[in-house]
Design goal:
heterodimer; A: alpha+beta; six-stranded mixed beta barrel; 11 strands; elongated; B: about 240 residues; alpha/beta; Rossmann fold
């Protein structure tokens, strides 16, 4: 029998027992809906996590360090030890070489230093001192999700003498007493007015390197002078002051390196920070080691996208440096979401498994009711295969209809869960999120799964119908 | 006059049913020949084996022993799929209880065998008109069986049996559920098909007068065996 005739006959047979077949189809729909709702929740959570982590710069950054200073996880895992001859210094030459690796967008040092900050709450008033950690932030950090809630603006340029402060520090500057966590989210308009555009004075130590005199060079080499590490020649530590205009307030520090233990409270452009030659705490460590020229403890390498992290990481390792990227740690996260999706899928499929029993029941009932009809069809020329296919297609049509309605129902359930969750989040004064996402593969997969499960359920009834003896069937009333 | 070329030949055909420990011989060694274009009637009491023999000739059942040769092909050697093709194209069946599908209209019932025969949609429409026209039911095309009289239902069944243009028409008590006037109309139609189109007709009946009036040959069965054969003296 032709496919069109099969589907036409199957559809008309299903219409004849409309109520029963509709209820069976609703059963399948509920099964598919639970599968779609569960997996779309899993997909939504995974997407949310990926988006948050991706925008934070975690997945397109590589932290590079000299093997002298830092050994990567891989090095430790492989139990590799390096002789001093194999190691390379992380200096400007290395920085330039890393910058030339394909797909590298930027290479910048992780600059952070301690400084005294002076700020007057009222113009012309008395300045109060604050001792804080300052960090350089590159221009590309603007894309980080922490700046979604930026109050004020980002730096106007790489060399702009502008600063962004963390909200908690802004409150300290304005001498606002501690409030409840939920009330700390943002500064009020008046508070912002009192802060943005105002000047803050940074007092820091500048490293001044002088051209080495031949005699000094000799002396320096002889004594293994620590100052040689600060610039290749004798260096002086000069106290400096510089004024910065506060342009923005942000709630937290974006990712930019391995800085979990030292969170900065004020940010200035990285390029400007570099030009300031500030003395960083890490300089003391490198000062103990003789070196030719300026060296970095770590460099942050930003690549075009997360897919480029691995090859760039390999290229940097080939150059003789240690690397670390969050991708090393994110494999565990991927495994977690795979397992979560698997369990959500299993729970979602349980309802569909129950619904498949409904299909078996409906079709077996249909065989009993349509026994004589099957006999007639065989008497006028239907083959066993025709009868089998007809019942098979009936199961498939129920599966297809159940799949379509189930996907729509699952989509609605997901929307409702998302809406409910966001209402709750709003009540907790937390930002709303999209926890729920239906990818195209889930729509196609759920539909295919529904049809396949229905066809499998139809196997037994279809083969039972095909085996019916036509003579016996024609005697049936 | 009937052709001498046989359309149906049975050789020592048996069909035994097992009921517990006993074996019931519904058809027991029947040798029979029906010529092409012949109108033959199988007569006998209830339980004589005539319907069982009819089902064997129709390919709905398989014999326990012997052979059934239809137009030179042995049904016993056919696969299930080949038997379905045989029922689709070579024989048409008409039943006492009409056996129409109650949820389908006249047109849909008549069209159904052509769906199994994979006839194109356009051709199906033409053939439905043709077959339903032959039995005089064109005004009833859109009616369901429950909206038709017994005679009309049997006409629909005949149209359905004819629509794939078979060479043999098998009718199992075609007038059994009809009043005598309607029964006569149906028998006239069967005779017309036999005479006009040279179709071989085998009819099962227990009404001897009907057989005498329409059939060219009467075959009497009893206890699953052929008891005798005769030709009616006068055909109406």
């Amino acid at each position: 029998m032709k496919a069109y005739d099969l589907i036409d006959l199957a559809s008309r047979n299903l219409r004849e027992a409309f109520l029963r077949n509709s209820l069976t189809t609703v059963g399948i729909s509920v099964g598919v809906a639970s599968l779609v709702a569960m997996l779309s929740l899993g997909a939504g959570l995974q997407k949310l996590a990926s988006r948050q982590l991706g925008r934070s710069g975690l997945f397109d950054s590589i932290v590079v360090s000299s093997r002298l200073d830092w050994r990567s996880q891989d090095d430790r895992r492989e139990n590799r030890s390096f002789q001093s001859g194999e190691t390379k210094t992380l200096d400007d030459t290395a920085r330039a070489a890393i910058g030339k690796i394909p797909n590298v967008l930027d290479v910048y040092p992780d600059i952070r230093f301690n400084a005294e900050l002076r700020f007057a709450k009222v113009p012309g008033g008395q300045e109060r001192p604050h001792y804080n950690l300052i960090a350089g932030l590159p221009a590309m950090s603007r894309a980080s999700e922490v700046f979604d809630d930026l109050q004020g603006s980002f730096y106007s340029g790489d060399m702009a003498e502008e600063a962004i402060v963390v909200g908690e520090f802004a409150r300290e500057l304005l001498q606002i007493p501690d409030a409840k966590p939920s009330e700390k989210a943002k500064l009020t308009e008046d508070q912002l007015k009192a802060l943005l555009g105002k000047e803050i004075t940074l007092s820091y130590l500048e490293r001044q390197v002088q051209a080495p005199q031949p005699a000094q060079m000799e002396k320096s080499a002889d004594l293994d002078s620590p100052f040689s590490a600060l610039g290749g020649g004798p260096a002086s530590l000069v106290p400096r002051s510089r004024k910065f205009k506060i342009v923005g307030v942000v709630e937290s520090e974006p990712y930019g390196g391995m800085r979990a233990a030292s969170r900065a409270r004020l940010f200035i452009p990285t390029k400007l920070a570099e030009s300031m030659n500030v003395v960083q705490p890490t300089d003391l460590r490198t000062a103990l080691r003789p070196s030719q020229g300026k060296t970095y403890l770590t460099l942050v390498v930003r690549v075009k996208n997360s897919a480029q992290v691995k090859p760039v990481q390999e290229a940097i390792k080939q150059m003789g440096f240690s690397t670390y990227s969050i991708l090393d740690a994110s494999q565990g996260l991927t495994r977690f979401f795979t397992i979560l999706d698997l369990f959500l899928g299993i729970f979602g499929s349980l309802a569909l498994a129950v619904a498949s029993l409904g299909i078996v029941n409906t079709l077996v009932m249909a065989i009993l009711e349509r026994r004589r009809e099957i006999g007639i069809m065989k008497a006028i020329g239907a083959s066993d295969a025709d009868v089998k296919l007809l019942f098979f297609v009936e199961a498939g049509v129920m599966g297809a209809a159940g799949g379509v309605f189930g996907i729509a129902l699952g989509w609605l359930i997901g929307k409702a869960i998302n809406l409910g969750a966001n209402i709750y989040m709003r009540s907790q004064e937390l930002p709303t999120e999209n926890f729920w996402f239906v990818p195209w593969w889930l729509i196609a997969g759920a539909f295919a799964f529904s049809v396949i499960v229905s066809l499998i359920s139809g196997l037994y009834p279809a083969s039972r119908a095909a085996r019916l003896d036509p003579v016996q069937a024609l005697r049936h009333d | 006059m009937p052709s001498v070329q046989p359309a149906i030949e049975t050789h020592a055909v048996t069909r035994h049913y097992r009921m517990g420990r006993s074996v019931i011989p519904a058809v027991d060694g029947v040798d029979l020949t029906v010529g092409a274009g012949e109108f033959a009637a199988l007569l006998g009491q209830s339980g004589s084996g005539k319907s069982t023999l009819m089902n064997l000739i129709a390919g709905l059942d398989r014999p326990t022993g012997g052979s059934i040769v239809i137009l030179g092909t042995d049904l016993a050697k056919m696969s299930s799929e080949e038997l379905a093709r045989y029922r689709r194209f070579t024989v048409g069946m008409v039943f006492q209880s009409f056996n129409l599908i109650s949820t389908m209209t006249v047109a849909e019932n008549v069209e159904l065998p052509m769906r199994f025969a994979e006839v194109s949609s356009a051709e199906r429409k033409t053939r439905v008109q043709e077959a339903v026209g032959k039995v005089g039911l064109l005004p009833r095309l859109g009616h369901r069986p429950s909206e038709l009289s017994g005679g009309e239902q049997q006409r629909t069944a005949i149209a359905r049996a004819l629509v794939n243009r078979p060479q043999i028409l098998l009718a199992d008590e075609p007038t059994g559920n009809l009043d005598s006037r309607t029964g006569t109309e149906i028998m006239d139609l069967l005779r017309e098909l036999n005479a006009k189109f040279g179709m071989t007709v085998v009819m099962v009946t227990h009404e001897r007068p009907l057989a005498e009036r329409y059939a060219q040959r009467m075959i009497f069965l009893g206890d699953g065996k052929v008891l005798s054969e005769s030709r009616p003296e006068v055909t109406a």
